[in-house]
């Protein structure tokens, strides 16, 4: 059985990673596919400060994930979605351990070395700290 965790932030990079997952799973009969979307704790605090309606936040998250979900639905692949809150890299790794997935797939934003050094990168942190294979899709 193949089990894949796709980390998705709703960006075009996540959609490209989703397309790659479709290729990986094509023709396979047994698989488990989970999309993980992490609500950054800092962004969550900002939304609370702005008094953003919880229903509006949920709709916003669903809209962010829609392109990735559409890719899997078009390919007729079953998937589950896990919405969680916290540090994105840490939550991705915790979920991969909890679900005991075979591989993490994540899109790369294409930061250059200086940007990554200054800003950090969820992708970089996951690659450095994960205890299982990580496929980075550019």
Mind explaining what this structure looks like?
With 138 residues, the protein is an alpha/beta fold. It contains six helices and five strands. The chain has a five-stranded parallel sheet with strand order 3-2-1-4-5, sandwiched between helices. Helix 1 links the parallel strand 1 and strand 2.
Output the keywords:
alpha/beta; Rossmann fold; 5 strands
As a percent range, the share of strand residues is 15-25%
- Specify the CATH architecture: 3-Layer(aba) Sandwich
Overall number of structural domains? 1
Percentage of helical residues? 40-55%
Ends apart, CA distance between termini = 26 Å
Please give the radius of gyration in angstroms: 15 Å
CATH C-level:
Alpha Beta
Strand order of the largest sheet: 3-2-1-4-5
Instruction: Work out the number of β strands.
Output: 5
The CATH fourth-level homologous superfamily: HUPs
Look up the CATH topology: Rossmann fold
Largest sheet, if any?
A: 5 strands, parallel
Give the averaged pLDDT, no decimals.
86
Order of helices and strands: EHEHHEHEHHE
Low-pLDDT parts are none
**Principal-axes shape call:** globular
Which structural class matches the secondary elements?
Answer: alpha/beta
Tally of alpha and pi helices:
6
């Amino acid at each position: 059985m193949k089990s894949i965790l796709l980390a998705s932030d709703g960006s075009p990079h996540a959609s490209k990673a989703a397309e790659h997952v479709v290729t990986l799973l094509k023709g396979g009969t047994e698989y488990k596919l989970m999309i993980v979307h992490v609500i950054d704790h800092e962004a969550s605090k900002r939304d609370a400060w702005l008094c953003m309606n919880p229903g509006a936040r949920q709709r916003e998250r669903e809209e962010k994930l829609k392109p990735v979900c559409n890719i899997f639905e078009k390919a007729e692949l079953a998937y589950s979605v896990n919405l969680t809150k916290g540090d994105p890299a840490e939550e991705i790794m915790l979920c991969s351990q909890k679900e005991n997935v075979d591989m993490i797939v994540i899109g790369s934003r294409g930061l250059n070395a200086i940007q990554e050094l200054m800003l950090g990168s969820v992708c970089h942190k996951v690659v450095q700290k994960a205890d299982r294979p990580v496929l980075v899709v550019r």
